[in-house]
Amino acid sequence: MAKKDTRLNSTSPCRSACPAGVDIPQYIRLIKAGDFAGALDVIRRHIPFPLICGFACAHPCEAQCARAQFDDPVAIRRLKRLAAEQDDRTPEAITGPRTGKKVAVVGAGPCGLSAAYYLNLLGHSVAVFDAQPQAGGMLRYCIPAYRLPDEVVSREISLLQRAGVELHGATRVASPQALLAGGFDAVFVATGAWTPSRMGIEGEDLPTVIDGLQFLQQLKLGEKPAIGPRVIVVGGGNTAIDAARAAVRLGATVEIVYRRSRAEMPADAEEIEEALEEGVTLKALTLPLKIEDGSVTCVAMRLQGFDADGRGIPEPVAGSEHVLAFDTLIMAVGQSADAAALALEQDRKGRAVVAGESLATSLAGIFAGGDLVTGPANIVEAIAQGRRASEAIDRYLGGAGILPETGLTEQEGDLAETAPRGSAQLAAEKLDLARRRTSFEVVEQSYQAAQAVAEAARCLSC
Questions:
Q1: CA dihedral 408, 112, 446, 212 (to 10 degrees)
Q2: What is the average pLDDT score of the chain?
Q3: Can you give the pLDDT at residue 41?
């Protein structure tokens, strides 16, 4: 007889690592039982966009999965995607009793849209404003289609529209104070971090040097930048990897230049590996010094000591200067926020200054969150910030700031036996490599239902 689970009231390592607090063990138990609809209900309690996260979440939960002590972590993100894909119900547009309060959200990225979803659930009327024609922010305009198709973004956002959230595209807001003066009771600013960082080296302004986000945006808008046959990408984050893989699909030979080692690249390890599979080369421990038309002078680096984040501190190796040739150099060394553009108090990095957990700015009735406050983060962190903002704004408007729980009630029960130790994570099938190099089709294929049940059986039910 299977053991009775006595640990359901504790917090598992994977759930603790999830910024949104998703009850991962419970939804995996439901997948193990073949109840995909129930699993999706559990996920939706804390994430309004489960399919988006199933495709593109950074999955910090997997890094803390206890199963990794014995073999591989459970494929939590892939299981989330499978649950969302298997369930063919049109998500119910749940709304709470109307409060008569109106909230404006500035920025239609994952943080702003999540705040709008939950504020609407709490009974407030919500209008979202964004400078881009369509809602989605970086989800729609920067993440390449081979990782996150537009139709997935549109499908998830349609839930907000069915629930009554107003979406106003191609509408740039110059002043959140003006929105208050125009009749809104509160404003939430979540405009992200779109300002490209610069290295401060000679030649960055040359026409052959382009910004990583700008390049990705052009591709998502249907343009095909003339980048030539040789491309160098500078940077080690997800934007750099996305830009490199996109350039391969345009027919270029691509090399990534990064000043630290591969192990210290902030990009997702899976994305780095897929880039290398597709023919991208990595020149680690290399720092650009000067850019000229068609070439960049670099110096080799070595790591000495550690910084505050535990990463090696790079320093130049004397006499190691060398020149690399290119047709286009894509600069992807990071982005920053620009809170001052909306007349918000900002810190030295351009991030909006807010009052702790309340996310309140120094201007009464105006709140801020997401990348505008944290600096560049990932999708699930943005969603968590939006949820937190909705609770804070609800309290400001006189509510309790408590979101209603939806979906299944957590119950104890007998657990099926766990797959034996030594059972490796089930790899997802990938698009044929030749097609990957020449198209923007989705690379990672979804699990089949039986595969998901087998993978879920590896969960230790911590």
A1: -160
A2: 93
A3: 92
Question: Are 367 and 225 within 8 A, CB to CB?
Answer: no
Dig out the tokens for 459 from the structure.
Answer: 């969960």
β-pair type (253-257, 335-336) = unpaired
Q: Are 341 and 351 in contact (CB under 8 A)?
A: no
What is the phi/psi pair of residue 55, to 5°?
Answer: -85, -45
Residue in the structure block whose two tokens are 């979440």? 57
**Distance from CA of residue 361 to its chain's centroid?**
24
Neighbour tally for 164: CB within 10 Å: 12
Mean pLDDT on 76-87: 94
DSSP result, 326-385:
-SEEEE-S-EE--GGGGT--B-TTSPBP-BGGGTB-SSTTEEE-THHHHSS--HHHHHHH
What is the rounded distance in angstroms from the CA atom of residue 272 to the CA atom of residue 72? Answer: 18
Distance of CA 293 to the CA centre of its chain: 34
Q: Residue 47 has which token pair?
A: 């994430």
Q: What are the backbone angles phi and psi of residue 387, rounded to the nearest 5°?
A: -65, -45
Tens digits of residue pLDDT in 24-63: 999 999 999 999 999 999 999 999 999 999 999 999 999 9
Q: In one letter, which amino acid is 286?
A: T
Retrieve residue 95's tokens: 């709304």
In the predicted model, is pLDDT for residue 375 greater than 90? yes
Please enumerate in sequence order all residues whose Cβ is within 8 A of that of 213, keeping only pairs 6 or more positions apart, or say none: 138, 142, 194, 196, 239, 332, 335
pTM higher than 0.90 for the full model?
A: yes
